[in-house]
Amino acid sequence: MADDGTPQLLDHPVTPPEEIERIFLDAVVREGVFPAGQFSMALPRLWSVDTPGEAAFPDPERPALTIARAMPGTAEAHGVEIDAKVNVHAAFLPRVINGSDWLQRWSVTQGLDLQQLRELPTAFGLLGDGLALAPQTGRLHRMLTIKDGDVLFLVDGSVDHGGDPSRPQLQEIALMAMMRFRLLAPSGQHYAEQMQDISLDGTAGGAQFLLPDSWMPVANDEPPPPDGALGQWILPGPDSVAGTLVAALGSAPGTAEPLESVLLGKLEAQGMQFDEATETLSVTREATMMQVMQRRGTARGADAVLLLLRANHAGVPLSLALLTPSAAEDFETWAINRRVFEIALETLRMGSA
C-alpha cells in the first residue's frame, strides 16, 4: 500500500508456497472456446468455468466478448468469502496497438478507475498489467493483457474489496491466474495487421523497416535529398488523415537533423507549430545509432505530436517522422500511431552500399 492508501500491484503471492500448491491447480479450458482462444491458467480447486461455445469469437462484428467465466463452484472453495471471479475476455484488433494502451481504453469504457498500470515489454508490444477499482460495484480488478496476432486476451480477476482495497491478499487469485495463463495453440504472430517491407535506397546506403498494410504511400511534392531517398505514407481515417509518416534518407557523411528541418519547415508553412524536441531514447543497434525524439505542438487547431527518429549508419543519416494527434486529442489514434512508430523503430535495419 502506498502512503496515500492507494492499492499497489502485487508482484508475488503472499501465501506460503506450500499453501499455494495446495490451493491452486492449472485448469485447462478447451471445451466451449474457439480453437485459437483455448488456454490454461491457475485457479483454486473446486472452482467452475463457464464458456460460451466455440462459435463465439471476436471479429469486426463482435469485437470483444467474454470467453470464460471462472468462479467458486462450492461454498467451501477458496475465494468465496470475497466473491472472487476470474473472467477471460478476447478482443479483435483491426489495427496494431499496445496492450497497455488498449487496457487504458477498456478501463474507461467499463467504468473502472485505473489505480496503477505497468507496461511489460514483449515481442508483441507493451502488454498491460493493471489494477483498478470499480466504484459502482465495490470491486477490485487485477488485469493483464496477452496479445496473439489480431486477438488480445484480457485476464480480469476481481473481488469484493469490502472497503479496504489495499490488502495485497485480494489480488492473489488474479495474480496466480495471470502468472500461469498460457494459450494452448498460439499463432505466434507479432502484429495484428499484415506488414509491408519498406525500403529506402541511396547511393551510400539504405534503410528497411516494416509498416502496416493499412498505411498507404502518397506522392511527396518535395524532391528527395541529394543521393538519398524520400517516402511518405498516410493512415486514412473516417473523415481525415489519422497519421502521416515521412522517411528521408541522406548520403554520407551527414546527420538526420537537416533532413528533419526540411520537414519541419514544410509543416510550419502549412500553419503547424511544434515545440523544441525532447529525447525519449538513445540506443545503438547493429552499428546503427538511433535517437528517438518528440515534439509537441498544434496541427490544424488540434493538439498534435511529432514522433521523430534520428538514425545514422556509417555516416548515412535517416530521419523518420510520424505526425499524430496527441493522446489528449484522440487517444485511440495516438495509441495506434505510437505502436506503428515503435514497429518501424524495432524493425529498422540500415546498411552501407
Brief account:
Strand 11 and strand 12 (205-212) form a beta hairpin. The protein is 16% helix and 44% strand.
Any overview of this molecule?
- This protein is of the alpha+beta class.
- The protein has 2 domains: 17-183, Protein Transport Mog1p, Chain A (3-Layer(aba) Sandwich); 195-352, 3-Layer(aba) Sandwich (Protein Transport Mog1p, Chain A), CATH 3.40.1000.10.
- It contains 5 helices and 21 strands.
- It has helices spanning 17-23, 99-109, 172-179, 256-269, 331-347; strands at 24-29, 39-44, 47-50, 64-72, 85-92, 113-122, 125-134, 139-148, 151-160, 182-183, 195-201, 205-212, 216-217, 229-236, 241-249, 273-274, 278-285, 288-299, 302-313, 316-325, 349-352.
- The strands form 4 sheets. Strands 13, 14, 15, 16, 17, 18, 19 and 20 form an 8-stranded antiparallel sheet that branches. The protein has a 7-stranded antiparallel sheet with strand order 3-4-5-9-8-7-6, with helices on both faces. It has a 3-stranded antiparallel sheet with strand order 1-2-10.
- It starts with 16 loop residues before the first helix and ends with a strand.
Give the topology, please.
Blueprint: H1 17-23, E1 24-29, E2 39-44, E3 47-50, E4 64-72, E5 85-92, H2 99-109, E6 113-122, E7 125-134, E8 139-148, E9 151-160, H3 172-179, E10 182-183, E11 195-201, E12 205-212, E13 216-217, E14 229-236, E15 241-249, H4 256-269, E16 273-274, E17 278-285, E18 288-299, E19 302-313, E20 316-325, H5 331-347, E21 349-352
Antiparallel strand pairs: 1-2, 2-10, 3-4, 4-5, 5-9, 6-7, 7-8, 8-9, 11-12, 12-21, 13-14, 14-15, 15-20, 16-18, 17-18, 18-19, 19-20
